[in-house]
Hints:
The structure is a homodimer of 400-residue chains. By secondary structure, chain A is α/β, with parallel strands linked by helices. The first copy, chain A, folds into 2 domains: 9-50 and 298-394, Aspartate Aminotransferase, domain 1; 67-295, Aspartate Aminotransferase, domain 2, CATH 3.40.640.10. In chain A, 40% of the residues lie in helices and 16% in strands. The first copy, chain A, contains 14 helices and 15 strands. Chain A has helices spanning 15-19, 24-32, 52-63, 76-90, 105-116, 131-139, 160-165, 189-202, 230-233, 267-277, 283-295, 297-315, 344-355, 381-399, and strands at 39-40, 99-102, 122-127, 143-148, 150-152, 155-157, 171-177, 205-209, 240-245, 258-261, 323-324, 333-338, 357-358, 360-361, 372-376. In chain A, the strands form 4 sheets. In chain A, strands 2-10-9-8-7-3-4 form a 7-stranded mixed β-sheet, with helices on both faces. A 4-stranded antiparallel β-sheet of chain A has the order 11-12-15-14. Chain A starts with 14 loop residues before the first helix and ends with a helix.
Amino acid sequence: MNASAPVPSVLNLRPEAEQAPTSGIVDVFSYGRNKPGIIPLWVGEGDLKTPSFICEAAARSLSEGETFYTYQRGIPELRQAIAAYHERVYRKPFDPERFFVTSGGMPAMQIVFRMISGTGDEVLIPTPAWPNFAGAITISGARPVGVPMTIDAKGWHLDFERLEQSITPRTRAIVINSPSNPTGWTASHEDLRLVLSMARRHGLWIVADEIYSRFVHDPAFDIEGRTPSFRDVMEHEDKVLFVQTFSKNWAMTGWRLGWLEAPPALGQVIENLVQYQTSGTPVFIQRGGVAAMEQGEDFIADQIARAKRGREIVASLTETGLVELPLPAGAFYAFLKIKGATSSKDIAFRLIDEANVGLAPGSAFGEAGEGYLRLCYLRKHEDLVEAVRRISEALPRLVG
Amino acid sequence: MNASAPVPSVLNLRPEAEQAPTSGIVDVFSYGRNKPGIIPLWVGEGDLKTPSFICEAAARSLSEGETFYTYQRGIPELRQAIAAYHERVYRKPFDPERFFVTSGGMPAMQIVFRMISGTGDEVLIPTPAWPNFAGAITISGARPVGVPMTIDAKGWHLDFERLEQSITPRTRAIVINSPSNPTGWTASHEDLRLVLSMARRHGLWIVADEIYSRFVHDPAFDIEGRTPSFRDVMEHEDKVLFVQTFSKNWAMTGWRLGWLEAPPALGQVIENLVQYQTSGTPVFIQRGGVAAMEQGEDFIADQIARAKRGREIVASLTETGLVELPLPAGAFYAFLKIKGATSSKDIAFRLIDEANVGLAPGSAFGEAGEGYLRLCYLRKHEDLVEAVRRISEALPRLVG
């Protein structure tokens, strides 16, 4: 189970480093990754390889010798392509100077928290939440403060009152992940306006993770093929930082390519932080990103259709009578409440052993996730049908 | 000149982020990078593209669909190949569990300082030094403390007395970069023993940057094709962390691939920090690294020969009577003392304008580097001959 021995105290590490939590998802993944026949629905990636036109763009760049140091903010062609993508999706003009290429969404987030939070600060995160928010905040020296969302038969909701009560003089930012990993909660324009107004009143930054925005399943949240965005409601001077990734839309999880959208006034600070973080992103990888942005719409449409069908398949888990699942409005995760479950981690490990299916334990997403399991349904239908069959068969034994 | 406007105070950034210095090398590079006909000797990279067998290994991996998330510590094949490389170069056994793949030497260093230093701490750096050490330390919240080296007709020397006097109760580590960028200073075994003993007495970490180790020009420091290493003098339990990169030996600057060598007891902490930094390095890039390690020795030999010849060519700059240059024992930089120079940055900018040659200003490497210019001589000989001609022609005007 990959339990780690404590670091000998003679090595005398910084507490922020030692306290960086081991991801509860990685624990389970490491335990079961090499098990023959396992259906892996634990991590946030689909089963499709990166489309070949993207791989070929990168290979071409390599063969042309684009193997030298490059711009710390990203190659101009990619920053331009990202701006053009935003213009298509949000139907208004975007300045390429707002976009900074990073080596994945995670580096973008690390730069964000490096800029706005540190020792003594607090950052609010509605939970359940992707554990890497808390990880990045902890490493910055700040304290992640989870604010539980509420749930009813219609699904998850932001608890605005509790969110505002959690603000202290140390609070620096609020993380808003919509559509949410793991719950699929999706903010309405009204939700976004309320958060923005709260942030303005208290002088806080908003860290917006809208990476699943194209995966919108509920027509009530569908604005011409994407979910409501802070970009629709914010003013130019609002303190909003967007973290973004190529991983999900274009099946590029293994490429480590993302971007940060920020006020251009932060350009030099971001450039310096990139310099001391990764010293830039390989040009040949960025060429893959340009191809994705410029030729990737058909592929995204296929992925979205795949996710929609996957969502319907896994919904049938409720027929066991042991699972509750308000249908997620967006993203590609089912966050399954398991009736009678006390330790979601135990159940996740036992599902590997007894059903040969890999799910992520809800406890990895904060206390509010205990008793849940997260299932990624961006996968081929036969696998999902078989996974539902195996889980339905095993579950009565596990919570009996 | 890429001078950056201050960040509006309403944005209220963390001081560590705002204080992250803009690299004085990047300033000059940004100014002149697109000038037609410029001979670019400013940054630490040669003019050769990555060898095709390395590019092809990466392209093959891409076409085989290795585009998914992977091991946070690096793929087992690469960790094994790195261990085997060390066994060949250092002629003793190495455990693959000591090696952690990172997305470049810079991310390795960021993880190192994240583990061992933070707010309130100090880290000693003999100077002149590569500016990114101080950058990474500053961002960690700690304070980089430059300790000037001394220079005489034979070259640069560590000032052990001054180094030990600079240790305070807040000191956590000493950075030792041998062979040094920018000076070419190379530690003897006796030097390394003295540093190690000092670190032991005061309970400090050593951060060892020996990335130029294969580029050894002075036979007095040549141990079967590499310079003296802490690996030769340390005991198993010594607190030494090695940062490493594929950039120099294998001409892979643009790939962002490196590694960290550390006690295996730190494995889980390092894995967590990788998770929240880059979430791993692309598998297809790591496949390039395996090819480099396993088939790269002929290429390295060519690079070393190229550097040796380059070193001889640039030595002729002393014939101007305006340049002092104790010949560097290792690495591939000439650190030129310009007689009568007061601002190396001004001279660097004027050399771009008037000689169309790009050098890095010595002031970028700390106060001890003021009055110097750094020239990277890992480049084709015609370019170096022409650069020497142009510099020799312009210099009398610039310091006249």
